[in-house]
Amino acid sequence: MVRANWRQGITRAEVVVVAGICAISIGLLLPAIQKARAGANGNVCQNNLMQIALATLKYHDTFGQFAPGMDDQYVGELVPLLPFVGRDNLYQNFSYDPAFRTYWVNPYNRPPTDGTDDIPRPPDLYGCEGDVDIFLCPDGPQQDDTVTALLVVLYGTRGVDYRSDDSALGHLFTGSPGRLVMSRSHYLGMAGDFQTANLRGVFRYNSRTRIADLVRGPENTILYAEYWGAFVAWGGPPGIPSGWSNASRSAGFNYSSFGTCPNPNSGACDYVHSMGLNFGTFGALHPTKEGGLGFNVAMADGSVRLLPGDIDYATWLTMCSVIGPGGRPIRGEPTDVWADVD
Description:
Number of domains: 1
Strand content: 15-25%
Low-confidence stretches: 1-40, 327-331
Radius of gyration: 23 Å
Shape: globular
């Protein structure tokens, strides 16, 4: 009979060997786990965007047109889309009271800016408050990671791209305590290029775009794109610390004019503070097959694509427009960033 030798415990040398093997295994496995996790989150982000696009098409089927990119109170198109993404409760809680010039000065939608972090209650839920899961990409900066949110984007021609009694303010973000209340969105509608008539997008000021208006076809026209925002050195007033700043779900749209990030060939993209992103550009940090970083877009046929952050600018403007190139586009730069002062 052969008897097996058994002893209790292992030697120090064996412990070292086992620990080394574990360390090597973890080192080899961790990148694969991170890659798999990023891929899973990327799928969630794409699925969210697809649901938004399909809800937008359902809105179009219901009303015969897409919602305006913003109305006379500068309410973005994601607000009227709420009933079509299963959040009619949030839509019913939003106030369109005409007594207020813009939606954000309505104290029912957002608390007045006083530079403090004291949120007055009631209401128990402000009109701009309440997260919508499919408006948020799990890979992107979440509300607790950001210091403020975009209220509206005002560029272009008075009476065409914004109200005739208003001024071009650029990217306007909320002060405190509204910055702590307003729910975020990682997806914004496409307004195209405000500088060139033929390159304007689906969602604009008081727009009533129809699928039939999409000259190049819905499969070639961008409805929405990812917008993760970027670092802004606010420096304090009005109650906003410097930090990552992205969009509210009330903002609705952004312009293609400012290009895309991350893009090493664009001086607008901030590689020091924002990993290549910029507060004025569309962009995200999803890995692409080519080894770069890109962002998701939803086309007007309901499909979703991952575009590289350094996509050719002329191609980008064309994909973002309703009509298509009718002249040489001029590239804009997001030079104006403001915080509201009530």
